[in-house]
Amino acid sequence: MVPLTATALGTIDTHEVDGLHRVISLCLHDDQAIDGDGVYAYWLVPGESYGLVHDGVTWTVTGGAWTEAGHTYRLLRVGHTVVSVPTLHGDESLDPDHTYIAQHASDGWELWRINVS
To answer: What is the rounded distance in angstroms from the CA atom of residue 75 to the CA atom of residue 64?
Structure first.
């Protein structure tokens, strides 16, 4: 088995309302939404971790207690395909060959790239 390491990439640029956080300029779309349009702007919940994985088409998000099994949550930027995540130091490019994790820390939401050593 190959051990995994992680590289901290920066603090994600977010906005908070009523304890929920949104990534600036990004949202999630639930492909299997029955009610409404399936678009979620405020989806980051402190205490949860989220995985970002490229499925060959777009970036998908997994994790979080509010997600439903069998649903695909796609990370979207209005009018554009997501190729980066906004951080406090600028946009961090996403590489489809890597998996990423967003997790809440004392200074905000951190973005980590998972590496195969």
So the answer is: 14
